[in-house]
Amino acid sequence: SQELEQSPQSLIVQEGKNLTINCTSSKTLYGLYWYKQKYGEGLIFLMMLQKGGEEKSHEKITAKLDEKKQQSSLHITASQPSHAGIYLCGADMRESGTSYGKLTFGQGTILTVHP
Amino acid sequence: DGGITQSPKYLFRKEGQNVTLSCEQNLNHDAMYWYRQDPGQGLRLIYYSQIVNDFQKGDIAEGYSVSREKKESFPLTVTSAQKNPTAFYLCASSWGGANTEAFFGQGTRLTVV
Fold first, then answer.
1. pLDDT-based confidence at B95, cuts 50/70/90?
2. A33:B98 CB<8 A
3. Substitution target from B11, B93, B101, B103 for chain A, most A beta carbons within 10 A
4. Which of these ranges, A29-33, A47-51, B62-66, B75-79, has the smallest mean pLDDT?
5. What band does B37 get if pLDDT is binned at 50, 70 and 90?
6. Residue B43 to residue A105, Cβ atoms within 8 A
7. Who's near A54: CB < 8 A, 6+ residues apart?
8. CA geometry: angle at B21 spanning B19 and B25, to 5°?
9. In this predicted model, which residue has the larger pLDDT, B69 or B102?
10. What's the DSSP call for residue B70?
11. Distance CA B74, CA B21 (A)
């Protein structure tokens, strides 16, 4: 099973609608990263969350990390066709006591925005 | 401009051949990573390196090899032992340590013909 679960796997919305993508872990997350990817291209960094309860926004995208640091959500307000792509959450899931963390990724959410 | 460069963008390999994917960064990052991406599976870590002349296996290292002779370079060799090599390969780099975001290259799509 996936260590980091994203939902939904795909999402189709009409332009102007709000949407939310979730990322859930069974373990405490030491850092949670959101990336966006256009098909066949590299990942573009969106935001990083570290502290429980933290919330960050950039333009129309807001990301939150819950108090227990086991779930994050990415919310897009008034979606536009330019928001279309694959959204991936990545997490530092290192074992307690270690200082180095590799990123583990969710399976991605494919977002389509119809004009 | 600083960044991370992967080459080539597309690569075709015959069965039984080894092939090497290039990854170069000029960000002065200590850590570098190789990921494999398959449809519906997100990214899976193949190898990573925290420092020159040192690297560690990731979750799916079998059939792959790497070297880290220079700080800016982390080439990945896909060997003939890799049973299902057709995939999209992504290289990334970061400052290393906790809570530092990774910067990604544009990827190499490898197809076995």
1. confident
2. no
3. B101
4. A29-33
5. very high
6. yes
7. A64, A65
8. 160
9. B69
10. B
11. 9
Contact A104 B101 (CB under 8 A): no
CB–CB of A3/A25 below 8 Å? yes
Q: Which residues in chain A are closer than 8 Å to B8, comparing Cβ atoms?
A: none
Report the candidate in A53, A109, A103 with the shortest Cα–Cα distance to residue A76. A109
Structural contact between residues B6 and B71, judged by C-beta atoms closer than 8 angstroms: no
Q: Characterise A53 by phi-psi region: left (phi > 0), alpha (psi -120 to 50), beta (else).
A: left
CB contact under 8 A, B98 and A92: yes
| A51 vs A22: which has the higher pLDDT | A22
Distance CA A27, CA A57 (A): 25
Rounded Cα distance between A102 and B33, Å, is: 9
Pull the structure tokens for residue B110. Answer: 């490898």
